[in-house]
């Protein structure tokens, strides 16, 4: 299970000076993990049965790699760069959690979420939708698609 709150975090892991913005460049310092940059292979996936699996769906390569590097220590990570590929991978691997961007090519995140929730094989998987949009309309759209 994913821990809730912040009690499990070290003080240095908590970023308090975040900015609300659509400009990814404002987050460059947080995106630089200090680790060697690994070449990304979208199809690269090795299962460690002791760890839960997360499917990360993000078309922005830097952000996708940031999330992957942040979570790979504790979770098996599958990545996809669009909703169509993500749906195929979700049906094949049946991850424990899906974290998806909303605005993507080929299939948007809300459509992906609806298809995940409509399929008996994947309907139990929690889906977290990420978006820079702040309007309540977009929040309702995500909830209506079945996002958790």
From TrEMBL:
Alphabetically ordered keywords of this record? Phosphoprotein
What protein is this chain from? Response regulator
One family name in Pfam for this protein: Response_reg
Please give one Gene Ontology molecular function term for this protein.
phosphorelay sensor kinase activity
Q: Where is the Response regulatory domain?
A: 53-148
SMART domains recorded: REC
InterPro entries cross-referenced by the UniProt entry = CheY-like_superfamily (IPR011006), Sig_transdc_resp-reg_receiver (IPR001789)
Residues bearing 4-aspartylphosphate are 101
**Transferase keyword on record:** no
Q: Which organism is it from?
A: Flavobacterium circumlabens
The answer on whether this UniProt entry bears the keyword Phosphoprotein reads yes
Which CDD domains did the record assign? REC_OmpR (cd17574)
Which top-rank group of organisms is this from? Bacteria
């Amino acid at each position: 299970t994913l821990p809730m709150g912040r009690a499990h975090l070290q003080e240095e892991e908590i970023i308090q000076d975040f900015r609300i913005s659509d400009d990814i460049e404002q987050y460059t310092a947080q995106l630089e993990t200090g680790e060697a940059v690994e070449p990304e292979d979208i199809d690269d996936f090795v299962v460690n049965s002791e760890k839960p699996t997360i499917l990360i769906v993000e078309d922005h390569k830097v952000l996708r790699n940031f999330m992957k590097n942040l979570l790979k220590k504790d979770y098996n990570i599958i990545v996809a760069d669009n909703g169509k590929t993500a749906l195929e991978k979700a049906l094949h691997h049946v991850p424990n959690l899906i974290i998806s961007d909303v605005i993507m090519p080929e299939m948007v995140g809300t459509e992906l979420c609806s298809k995940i929730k409509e399929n008996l094989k994947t309907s139990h998987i929690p889906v977290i939708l990420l978006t820079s949009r702040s309007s309540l309309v977009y929040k309702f759209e995500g909830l209506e698609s079945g996002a958790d």
